[in-house]
């Protein structure tokens, strides 16, 4: 009964994800049509008013490129999730699993890659392919040379780790409580992040750029203190807040001369809206705790699915195999949880910015200008954005800000 219920739940969740992908693809087609042919881009005039005559052509051109990019991403997601689902079904059912193993054995015999007489090698072969697919999905934005280094490291690890490829990781999660795992992960991650930040930005500490003056400078100094403002001129225009152990810091990059003082102040107010040191540590800890629980639940689902399977392969090894097969789905789950959490925080920071700036339109103007001047996306289906972006689209942020008035 448990196995049947788990299977139905997984099918239901995958059906929802497929529906989201199809809806997003249709929505992108509709949006592309609006960009190419129609006068008004959005039904909401609140957003249309920011797209004036001189910026409209640039807006349409940039968004057409973004639509093409996201359409390719959606189609890739559809293809990848279909492949993963297909292999899950094949290896879940006894008859199709036996048929697939025979074919894989024949391939291994022809290529002499592995010993085809050992059945576990068929699972090993499929497992390393899906781990590699997962690895590729993690590194699309890395430079080519960096990707090559990552893939070479993967091959080296496979060679050294082959004997332990099917070790029972489930014992680890049963032997230790979730909370200690989250705390250990949190401490290690914080140490690495702070060390990296210290090395990267220590030479930029206390530097105040010329464009940061008047109201914007006053806001920044009052909340962060002058010595905790870092400015890196070489990067693209961006602003972020973080913590250096027990100090709240503001990092500004790039040139902001094309923006008004009010607009820069609104972004600083947004960063102030992210809260102080204590709030950041609480948020960071909550993220790790949620992700750790998600991994635990993911492993429990795999365990429930596999424990009644009939196979000559040890059930413990089958569980690990299905984990490898579904690493991309685990990543999808963790990304979804992270982005829902992150986007909620961004909306809250926007709300605080409006409160600090006394309800003017500076932040909305700033968001639109940032889209025009930088390499950003303006509109993306809100539900699908949870799977891909840790920030809401500028469209949904502007709508949310206007609704506060």
Automatic annotation (TrEMBL):
Family listed: Belongs to the peptidase M48 family.
InterPro entries linked: Peptidase_M48 (IPR001915)
Name of this chain's protein: Peptidase M48 domain-containing protein
The keyword Cytoplasm is assigned to this record: no
Cofactor(s) needed by this chain: Zn(2+)
Signal sequence annotation: none
GO biological process, one term: proteolysis
GO terms assigned for molecular function: metal ion binding; metalloendopeptidase activity
Span of domain Peptidase M48: 250-404
UniProt KW Signal keyword: no
Transmembrane segments: 9-26, 69-92, 123-142, 148-165, 177-201, 281-299, 320-341
Cofactor note: Binds 1 zinc ion per subunit.
Keywords, alphabetical: Hydrolase, Membrane, Metal-binding, Metalloprotease, Protease, Transmembrane, Transmembrane helix, Zinc
